[in-house]
Design brief:
With 514 residues, the protein is α/β, with parallel strands linked by helices. It contains 15 helices and 20 strands.
């Protein structure tokens, strides 16, 4: 993991592989951003014109390398784009700094140390830059060969793989200032756990199955003082968890329900987080067609987000009780698999007619939501890669937010936007509920095709305890990025919703959510 430090050193005298500066789009060309004054001076005030000559405009996502000025101990200056220059008396937005730092860290993969001379006017800026650098430096190379491999290509693959940037030093930071130190510690805790979620999402399903995921949770619990309880297939059968068992019935890898409990002696509120953890989703008997199942190792992204958030909360020592529920199963076709037309008796006692075995996430979540409700938390938030319909509605970078309380939905949306996770509030029209009426069971797991993401939310609502505030985050779009990396977002698992959940816990601990 990349080390993160605060430094008061001058850019010219710092030993590093590169000095990172910001450049923005001005009305007449690129403009050197605050934080890089000493670097610009070393270029006789002509850094912006040199960058323009090299083709830089200051647009977000740009990265331009040039030789460092004479007298600098670092050999390279890396200029990263910040987008349009803020209006007078306005600072650079935290998300702009986060993305720029991510671009820099990604560009400098394999380097030992980089000094970030980006606009840094507050502890919050330090946190944003640090978080962006840590997230941008992420790389998943666990399966890229090993140095002791027998195969020559595997050996070469290991040798050619660039490790992440080893250290990011934030110039202009105040190492002795409590607020700055806290901002860096928070960035480390959140980014490290978010990157752990990314690792889980990227791990192949032959290595990450329900029992293996549960073991990871148990190990983290021991390390961070989190109580972990795991219900195996026998305990699930004894407890009547028909949804989780029904989804996992076709797999040789049996399901698990994992409970993670973080408690604070000073807590006044209790949050329950519920994550969909389908470690591989073939669709079951309602088999996904070719072209739609290659990335389905990511169908446990909701559980990964919940797991990472609970551990981050524990590391931060927040004064709020947080319980995480990981509903883990593998959805596979076989002679023992649930069939379309089968009826499952859920943990709540309700019966569900399964019309489509590829609408399985709502089944495992339903059992977990009912169980989570028994603790009577102040609020429940579930996170899931639930529906393709939500991707069609909002695209692949924005998650949908539904809730049984409009104010809570608004709060979640605002929190997500604040931490840099695009989201959008979605309705739950009551007329869509009728489409899930079943002549055989209490409810069907499918309803009207149009508005499928909203239908799924209405299904989940049926299993939330009476009087409990609840929100549902459908992260099907942003959970797994198949395109080229951008900002601090890598190819593959993204860790979507982790930062939203952590900030929600912080707000709850501070009493900001009532």
């Amino acid at each position: 993991m990349t080390a993160l430090t605060l430094s008061t050193a001058a850019a010219s005298g710092l030993r590093a592989d590169a000095i990172v500066v910001g450049v923005a789009k001005g009305a007449k060309g690129p403009v050197v951003a605050p934080g890089a004054e000493s670097v610009d001076k070393a270029y006789d005030g002509k850094l912006a014109s040199v960058l323009e000559t090299l083709g830089a405009s200051g647009a977000e996502g740009e990265a331009t390398k040039l030789p460092a000025p004479s007298g600098f101990k670092a050999p390279v200056i890396l200029a990263v784009g910040l987008g349009t220059v803020p209006e007078k008396d306005q600072a650079y937005d935290a998300e702009v700094l986060r993305r720029a730092a991510g671009v820099a860290a990604r560009t400098l993969a394999g380097s030992k140390k980089a000094a970030f001379a980006l606009p840094l006017e507050s502890a919050a800026d330090a946190g944003a830059i640090g978080e962006g650098a840590l997230l941008g430096a992420y790389a998943f190379d666990a399966y890229k060969g090993t140095a002791d491999a027998k195969d020559a290509k595997a050996k070469k693959g290991a040798k050619d793989t660039k490790g992440p940037l080893a250290e990011a030093a934030l110039l202009g930071g105040k190492p002795r200032d409590k607020a700055y130190k806290a901002a860096v510690e928070r960035a480390l805790a959140v980014a490290e756990e978010l990157n752990r979620a990314r690792d889980l999402i990227n791990t192949p399903p032959n290595d990450l199955y329900p029992e293996a995921f549960a073991a990871v949770a148990q190990a983290a619990g021991k390390e961070h003082g989190i109580k972990v309880q795991v219900l195996d297939e026998k305990a699930l059968a004894k407890g009547g968890y028909g949804g989780i068992l029904g989804v996992g019935a076709g797999s040789a890898a049996p399901p698990r329900l994992v409970k993670l409990s973080y408690t604070s002696s000073k807590a006044k509120k209790h949050l329950a987080l519920v994550g969909k953890g389908i470690t591989y989703d073939s669709g079951g008997i309602s088999l996904k067609p070719a072209g739609h199942n290659e990335t389905m190792k990511c169908d446990m992204s909701g559980a990964a987000a919940v797991f990472a958030a609970v551990v981050a909360v524990a590391r931060l020592g927040l004064e709020v009780n947080v319980t995480g529920w990981l509903a883990l199963a593998e959805n596979m076709p076989s002679g023992s698999a649930t069939r379309p037309g089968d009826v499952l008796r859920m943990y709540s006692g309700k019966t569900v007619e399964v019309l489509n075995t590829d609408a399985e996430g709502r089944l495992v979540l339903a059992d977990a939501l009912t169980k989570a409700s028994e603790d009577k938390p102040d609020a429940i938030v579930d996170v899931a890669t639930l529906t393709g319909a939500m991707v069609l509605a909002l695209g692949d970078r924005t998650f949908g937010v539904m809730a049984n309380d409009d104010a809570f939905r608004t709060s979640i949306h605002e929190i997500a936007e604040e931490v840099g996770e695009p989201s959008w509030p979605m309705p739950m029209p009551e007329h869509l509920r009728k489409g899930m009426d079943s002549p055989t069971a209490d409810i069907a797991n499918m309803g009207e095709r149009m508005g499928g993401g909203l239908v799924a939310g209405l299904f989940l609502k049926e299993f939330v305890g009476e009087g409990i505030t609840w929100a549902h985050l459908d992260i099907a779009g942003p959970a797994f990025h198949e395109g080229a990396p951008y900002g601090y977002t890598p190819k593959g698992g993204t860790g979507s919703a982790v930062r939203t959940l952590v900030r929600l816990a912080e707000r709850t601990a501070a009493g900001d959510l009532g």
